[in-house]
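pinning this so it doesn't scroll away 📌
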Amino acid sequence: MKIIIIIFAGVCLAALVYILLVSSRNGHPVIGTTAQPLLPVSVSWNRAIFGNSFVLVMQNTSNDALPVKVDCVSPTFGEKMFRMVLRPRDFTKFGKLEGWDFVTGDAVTLSSAGYVPIQRKAND
């Protein structure tokens, strides 16, 4: 009987650890909290017309205007943060003319209050 109880306790502990690992987002467990929805933005890349850079293309897939913070990181040039509002169901292009010349290896994080951020690398 004691062996069955010990095995049962071990299985329960293993199940709890599995739940914590599987149901976490960005390393933060969501057990006992309300999980944040994913940011309603689709992300893609276009080649810039001139040069070897990329243009970030964002589409707000929601029916509401969406304020976003755009954090750009370059291994060569450092970091810079931009703020903008994405119009509902519309595309927004962001590149050299808007303040950041994306090249392969650059990273971007899109975030907005109440949503899980989106992270992408240039040309992903």
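📌 and the second one:
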Amino acid sequence: MRKIWLPVLILLLSVSMMAQVRTGNIYGKVVDTEGNPLPGVTVTLTSATFPTQSTVTDAQGVFRFVSLPPAKDYQIKAEIAGFKTKTESGIIVVIGGNTNITITMEQGVLEEQVTVTAVTPMVDTKKTTVGKNVTQEILQSLPSARDPWNVMAMAPSIIMDRENVGGNESGQQASYYARGDVSGGANNVWALDGVVVTDPAAIGASPIYWDFDSFEEMNVVVGGADVTVQTGGVGLNMVTRRGGNKVSLTGRFYLTDNYFQAKYTGKTYNKINQIKDYGFSLGGPLVRDRAWFWMSYGVQDINEVAINGTPLKPLLEDYNFKINLQPIKNNRFEALLTSGQKKFIGRSASQSFPEGYDQGCPFHWGSPIIKIQDEQMFGNNLLLSGKFAYMNSSFSLIPHSDPNMNHLVMYDATNDVTYDNWYYITKRPMYDGDLHGQYYNDNFLGMSHEIKFGVEYSTRRVTTDSAAPGNLYMMYDLNWTDVDWEGTGNPGFTPGMREMAVYSAYNLDWGVTQYTGFLQDTITKGRLTVLLGVRFDRQQPKINSSTYYTVNDNPVWTQYAEPDVKAAIKLLCLE
């Protein structure tokens, strides 16, 4: 499938913001006390969690620091001979935001210094996206359930399929969409530290559950994305924390107990027995001002009762590890490992299937997400970035009473109860590599240009294995008449007898390879902004060798039709 998208937008005082972002920008200008631009000023950016960067203002006095992680402690120092050194501190950068600063320098000797300490106002005149930024302070202070779906529920125009009150829907994925999305949420995008991690099989869903305390900031976008984004659904950008020059160790323990839950007579809702949320994080310098590390571990132990009385006891477990380096000047290297899994004893339990499944993960540490990224800033005008990512969203459903998957599946048609069941194991590996850049020219043809360009190659694959152990399924009905459970006439069947079906395994293996290229120019002249962009996607789907359920060769059900089937029943069932 090929898709070419060529949007042309003409906006006033605005530029679009991409949805899969993990950083923000600082745009600035240095002037003298009369407002004249100062070229040749050395501008240095420092932060406790980001390597020191420096640049020199151009002929228009302009400087910029792009692709910055969210933080509120950035400091800028401006120096030039004949003027007092000027320092601005407390500068805030948010995900997808543009912080604009004008530095006014006074004439004087270089040794004199003027320091301004003030939090930069969070006003972004170039922003056109509709959405919401949620900082760590807000994340930690909100009296709500601790999961990303609750954060998205606070963004404008998003409609959720449930309300998670105090955590009574935690451990489950909510469905959501915005602005009349006719895909039903299939266009939604999940991004972790700039990597698209949307589940390749459950399109629009999260691949894992998350450690809520691992996030530095979240950004929800419901519209206004540029050509770097493939779809137009809700975009959730999650940025994890990072180490700094100071060693930090934090821990948490949250308890939500049934004692604190309001009692409503005659009302049906998910009820909380007890929820425990605990974990820790550790970060600090490996080499001061050069290399940092950060790690965390988190658990949510959930014990609830569903509306229908079914117990819900998922256990969510997450590991995170990140390294940030500055090997050379104006270079940023980042490596991230996130792994999570959901353990759920008795998933899908019901009156017809009382034991339910044991949900787990084929991997011991859970489904992994790995990212390696390197960025290099060349001068004041060019940023190049290369990134590789790997993800494998995987889980398994095994009948609770049959962990070794060797029992005969039996269906009691008299009481409508299934004993044991089919098992289900799925793996969903994803590989992604991309190269992209940003080029800035502040006076080409009398206009300012911000050019984004890039290419990307990705593969996504889904394998699924499901079958009844031994490929056998047995049904019995002690009150048989002349019609079987599917409504098919079978007058020769004797009450109390058994029926047997022979199944083949259910094995699916499919995937897609995608090639992407994009180019975008944001042109600014005074109060007029023109955004021009072109995007090309080529997708190559592939279905590898797969098999589907088949039942015998001719009849759907066979009554002791084959000797081996009858032998199996004699061994496993009472005659």
